[in-house]
Amino acid sequence: METLTPRDDRQVLEAVAWAAASERPLEVRAGASKLGLGRPVDGDHTLDVSGLNALGLYEPEELVVSAQPGIGLATLERELAAAGQMLAFEPPDLGPLYGGAPGGATLGGVIACNLSGPRRVKDGAARDHLLGIAAVSGRGEAFKSGGRVVKNVTGYDLSKLMAGSFGTLAVFTELTVRALPRPEDTATVAVSGLGDAEALAALAAVLATPYEVAGAAHLPAAVADRIAPAALAPAGLPVTLVRLEGFAPSVAYRAERLVALLAARPGGGTVVRLDAAASRVLWLAIRDVSPFALSPGGDVPAGPPVWKLSIAADRAAAAVARIAQAVPVEAIYDWGGALVWLRLGDGGALPAGVADDAGARMVRGALGGAGHATLVRASAMVRAAVPVFPVQPGPLADLTLRVKQNFDTRRILNPGRMYADA
Amino acid sequence: MKMPAPDQAVIARRREIVAALRRIVAADAVIDREDAMRVYEADGLTAYRQLPMIVVLPETTAEVAAVMRYCFDANVKVVARGAGTSLSGGALPLADGIVLGLARLNKILSVNYETRTATVQPGVTNLAVTQAVEHRGFYYAPDPSSQIACTIGGNIAENSGGVHCLKYGLTTNNVLGLEVVLITGEVVRLGGEMLEAEGYDLIGVLTGSEGLLGVVTEVTVRLLPKPEVARALLLGFPSSEQAGDCVAGVIGGGIIPAGMEMMDGPAIRAAEDFVHAGYPLDVEALLIVELDGPEAEVADLIARVEAIARHCGAVNVRASASDEERARFWAGRKAAFPAAGRLSPDYYVMDGTIPRKQLAHVLRRIAEMSETFGLRVANVFHAGDGNLHPLILYDANQPGELETAERFGAEILKLCVSVGGVLTGEHGVGVEKRDLMPVQYTEVDLDQQQRLKCAFDPHGLLNPGKMFPVLHRCAELGRMHVHGGQLPFPDLPRF
Ligand SMILES: Cc1cc2nc3c(=O)[nH]c(=O)nc-3n(C[C@H](O)[C@H](O)[C@H](O)COP(=O)(O)OP(=O)(O)OC[C@H]3O[C@@H](n4cnc5c(N)ncnc54)[C@H](O)[C@@H]3O)c2cc1C
Fold first, then answer.
1. B236 in ligand 1 pocket by Cβ < 6 Å?
2. Choosing among B86, B160, B183, B196, which should be mutated to test the A contact, i.e. which has the most A CBs within 10 A?
3. ipTM of the predicted structure?
4. Among A253, A329, A369, B152, which is least packed, fewest CB within 10 Å?
5. At the top level of CATH, which class does the domain A185-288 belong to?
6. CA of residue B439 relative to chain centroid, distance
């Protein structure tokens, strides 16, 4: 097992072409902050692209920036902030979720995993912000797709196919993403005391207003106690959060309207408005799933299993309630309930029937067709044995396999990372 | 325009194919009479016509699947069709293929206001989605000017845009779920009422795939709440340069308007003549900037944009005072294509995208080319995202003028690519820009696109002759050319 550390796109091409020719599977990594996300790769060599970390052409007036995949998100975001801009999809830093240090995430990594933060409800996902790529396919062919403009329908949108493909089809050598203006002001309106179902209904009502909600989360009591400022809710109460962003007078006006709307809903406790600074801290914690982070170097390397549910928001609370009947859980609801992070267990051993598969059958069974579940944290042994990504019906699984075979014919890029046979 | 040579063996089996299709769908859903098939012979790119072999109009996903399965087994090509408003010839029929018309799959299946989604069949028109939900204060954001007629299925296939896409995204950013019938007749469902689909982003590649990967039979779209207030500014400038500066100034000022459209002198005058929108006639460039949001925010932004416009030399500044006035500002822009149609017997719509900062340069070059080719041009564009629609005016009855218009159009698109832009922003490649693909992509780039095609449609039965200048055989594309098993790079760092 050797690590190849290319310094430029030509060397990436050489490395992949060699691996394809000699049928040596590569585990592709950049910041190595999320290696626990996905199945363990049967890699023979490691291809570490963290050396491709340069900022490329950044044109703030065109709202577009190019960079190499290994660029640290922190570095890139600093550059954008200096020009009053940001990555609007709010990429999370999941390193600490796996017991790593914060700050390890790279642009290539978050795009490869298509990870988006709380602003997803307003501004779209990572894949919506990716305009173009240069990459090397598993066949050892350097290609590009897309460009530097938003409106582009010239051929298939291969950039989207590569976003969220977990490095199983091609290795990025350059990415071009949208850079959008940073909001002038931000605020959070919070209401305490709502149960999960009531909270998600309140969030649906809020998201149906024209107030351009840029974050809609619900923290059940156990989670709220850990990250919500004391000013928001007395200990032991859940908190439901709505974020607003934009020009200052507009934020003030919309916050006032939402305070009134939430106060008028039955069952809620006090409605509080958080200022910009406190608001930022809180949404960072939600973005990075901080309540489920592992302490670095802890003795349980994987910690309790964590699931990510992508689900129709109006059925999320019921699904979580069904899961909670089988095993104690902690949930973080984001995206108005369309995204749920679930940690199984209360620290002790998981009940029989759940322990062996990290709850896979039980969790997936509880969704009742309203969504799908990804096992985002579990030991390598469990992740090798249990389908980490949702199990696809026959024709879709076949299609997935054909896509893989066409781009990575010899199965050398992150083989097994998404599916055992792809 | 060369299309692949029709397969005479298939054409010879036409009667047998008609009979087989009549066993799958209702007899009146299979059209084989020439006069009845005439309406299908072209789409919005009317310069090209071809009578299809047969037209089939299924009513359910199951019928679509059975037709596809039959075509797969019988080696019959399939051209899907929505409303036939494509401007790139995407729905142009084939002499040896069926047209699979989806107009009868026209039901809105469900609306969920809790998840703010609507699930509809592909033949539902774009506008009908908004009409179904507006009484609850919602709308579907992508709004192509053809929205009264064009279908959601066609919008998916072309990844269509509209004037509100600057702030709210294109079709691809507003689709959450698809049901797709593959050429084998297999049905796959992707995404749904949740925000994130699982697995490879197949919704992302099917959107904009121009009917070459599968037939869309169900679509779940995202609905947005209507803004509290929307107001439009009408800004007249003595030159396109100044209007271009204003666009850059607005975006540079951190403002993303709901829409920001530009028209040049000839387009302004044609539109005004046609719909009497109240446009100033003594300017060479007109911007329509729409701002939406809460009342106070909109008032503030109107003032900010006005100031930027005056600073850039606007000689005419008007803000809409009512929704009727705002609609009037837009009426001229939305009718720009038919308005141009009154200037000239025929017009040819182009659709390149360029980086915003190249606007003035590209307009200047287009004006020069207009002299060289001897054809007039009117320009309208989605200025906020650099998507140009030069309308080349010509007369198809004059020998050679269509060809001249096409050569002129090709030069404009090459210019777009050369300044860092792309061949098509929203109308698609179709047959129209097919042969220009190598201007933007290398052969290896195009090979990757075809690999995706091979994963979906290995025999190339779906909409052949579109998008790709040359469609390679999948077996040939799949072959690996292997060179040596040694690490060929002594200089590659590793540890
Ligand atoms: C006056 C006018 C104004 C226009 N303005 C705009 C505009 O502002 N913005 C814009 O983006 N476009 C615009 N267009 C172009 C056109 O309306 C869009 O491309 C539209 O999305 C096409 O929809 P359709 O239903 O007419 O599709 P068709 O023309 O029937 O088909 C278009 C393509 O989609 C495929 N297709 C259709 N249905 C399906 C399906 N269910 N499954 C798979 N493939 C399918 C066809 O095979 C074909 O390749 C305009 C056209 C006209 C004539």
1. no
2. B196
3. 0.97
4. A369
5. alpha beta
6. 20
